[in-house]
């Protein structure tokens, strides 16, 4: 089984999947994985997300790397790991969730924004830090400022990152970027999966042009 951070670092994007009902996410995840976006995150704000993660682990293509997003509690963390999530993503600095990931050997992308929060998440055992909300904080320029004093912490900016500026975050030092609505478009509402595949392939190609 591939290392999660290696997968994320290679494809350079995490797709954030959020819908009213998580049961609708599997076909979307299949399209994304087929287009090269191997890291797909099922958000727990989608009804039935734990069950959807368990089901998708059984049906997913072998190259898929499925995670759970918006993990807010120890109970949530334990449940999604039991369901088969290979990594956890939080929107905030939650030491208790990071501790579950460390104990169970599951990487955590911990949400943080300020240098203090980012360093605290790293010291608590987070495998990477989800810089959120990245665009509102100043975009690639803010990330570049963070990298100068914190060069050894893997950063995954999320929140307002778009297809057009995603590569700028990589140039600023991000390990990868997290994209939701701007990548998914209307797919979560039963929209065009062909167009989704085209957006995903275009994004992967654009990010691949940025030197590692």
Question: Could you explain how this protein is built, in words?
Answer:
The protein has about 210 residues and is α/β, with parallel strands linked by helices. It has a single domain (about 5-210), classed as Aldolase class I (TIM Barrel), CATH 3.20.20. About 45% of the residues lie in helices and about 15% in strands. It has eleven helices and seven strands. The chain has helices at about 5-10, 25-35, 50-60, 75-85, 95-105, 115-125, 135, 140-145, 165-170, 180-185, 195-210, and strands at about 15, 40-45, 65-70, 90, 110, 130, 175-180. The strands form two sheets. Strands 3-2-1-7 form a four-stranded parallel beta sheet. A three-stranded parallel beta sheet has the order 4-5-6. Helix 2 links the parallel strand 1 and strand 2 (about 40-45). Helix 2 (about 25-35) crosses helix 11 (about 195-210) and helix 4 (about 75-85) packs parallel to helix 5. The radius of gyration is 16 Å and the shape is globular. The model has no long low-confidence stretch (mean pLDDT about 95).
